Amino acid sequence: MPHLPRVLLVMAALHVSGPGHPADDSLLLADFPASLESLPWRVVNDGVMGGRSRGDFRPEDSSLVFSGTTNTDGGGFSSIRSRTHRFDLEGYTGIRLRIRGDGRDYTLRLTTWEARSKRLEPSYWAPFPTREGEWTTVDVPFSRFRPRWRGRWLDGPALEPRAIDGLGLMIYDGQDGPFRLEVDWIRAYRAPQPFSMAVYRWQKRPLLLLAENEGDPRLQRQLAAVEATWDRFEERDMVLIVVLAAGPSRAGERPLSENDADRLREAYGVTEDAFALRLVGKDGGVKRQADDVVPMEELYDLIDSMPMRQQEMRR
Known about the structure:
Number of helices: 7
Order of helices and strands: HEEEEEEEHEEEEEEEHHEEEHEEHH
Helix content: 10-25%
CATH class of the largest domain: Mainly Beta
Oligomer: single chain
Distance between the termini: 29 Å
């Protein structure tokens, strides 16, 4: 049975990388509607302060729907809040949500047991946008949360992720009218560590292909050449790195951020609109560089002439 077209799979994977991809190490906090039983939620509308907004939530298919109508002649808000539960998110960067909204801005509201023990008992608020009718994944870093108590912003204390014990969603955008927010899940996420070529030192021989976008014909021809000789590629401990100026990039199975891609272009002296090939040895040095397609036979012969590769072949 022939092997799968792995280079094509690498390119396909470029389209699914990004926040919320299952490969990340995020921590699931709420998965709707399944978690409603283990982590119950309640409604708090502006009626508590004499307002006339209406809001509620319900499970629907594989999500939770928070909907209603806001009225700014009064409090102007509607919210839902989880039961108190100690999450202990020390070491995480923020909260990630998969949502489908209506184009209005919403607010993520957190509480902490540490703040609850203080005189003012603040909650922590951070706004996030939605796109009308479109499922999106939104990251809200802890650094964006500000303490609020009884309608006013406070200078502190700062949010302590280790002490978070409550989640909440709110609409309080100063607008009148209907609202609807669907929530698939809520997670805590860690910001990925910057990519470094050092991870391959003495282990792999990276082949970097840098291009403006995946439609570059030189990139496509070089990828096809790699695919046609994939067994020989793997035999020489090579790893494929695709760096795009317009579009997601990838190093082997790892998605690369835009900052990672920028650093790689700078490190290897390649502009955003150029195509370039860089073959890097296990010692980290560049062994072959080109601004056009290079026959794979030429690259393999070069690798096989290297003393380290000759030692590997004698084993």
